């Protein structure tokens, strides 16, 4: 299992909360068998999103595939 800290997404901000949900949904769409989970961690700066995947994947590979998927027309 791998976890990504989505430190730019502050859970107190409604738009950032929705962005975290969209990140979870897109990740689950690309890797449906990865068991993607979204959680929140209280840090000194507030609540920050964390994404967990049940696959062995580097952050660079995850970001590259997300960018490719999101740039493809539907």
Quick summary:
This protein has 74 residues and is of the alpha+beta class. It has helices at 14-30, 59-71; strands at residues 2-10, 37-43, 46-53. It contains two helices and three strands.
Architecture blueprint of SSEs:
Blueprint (H helix, E strand, L loop, with lengths): L1 E9 L3 H17 L6 E7 L2 E8 L5 H13 L3
Antiparallel strand pairs: 1-3, 2-3
Keywords:
single chain, 74 residues, alpha+beta, 3-stranded antiparallel sheet, 41% helix, 32% strand, globular
Shape: globular
Q: Which oligomeric state applies?
A: single chain
Number of helices: 2
Q: Give me the count of strands.
A: 3
Identify low-pLDDT runs. Answer: none
Radius of gyration: 12 Å
Helix content: 40-55%
Tell me the β content. Answer: 25-35%
Q: Please identify the structural class as seen in this structure.
A: alpha+beta
- List SSEs in N-to-C order: EHEEH
Record the strand order, biggest sheet: 1-3-2
Mean pLDDT: 93
Major β-sheet annotation: 3 strands, antiparallel
Distance from N terminus to C terminus (CA atoms, Å) equals 30 Å
């Amino acid at each position: 299992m791998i976890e990504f800290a989505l430190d730019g997404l502050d859970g107190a901000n409604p738009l950032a909360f929705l962005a975290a949900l969209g990140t979870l949904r897109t990740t689950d769409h690309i890797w449906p068998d990865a068991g993607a989970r979204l959680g929140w961690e209280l840090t000194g700066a507030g609540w920050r999103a964390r994404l967990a995947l049940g696959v062995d994947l580097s952050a660079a590979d995850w970001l590259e595939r997300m960018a490719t998927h999101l740039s493809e027309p539907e």
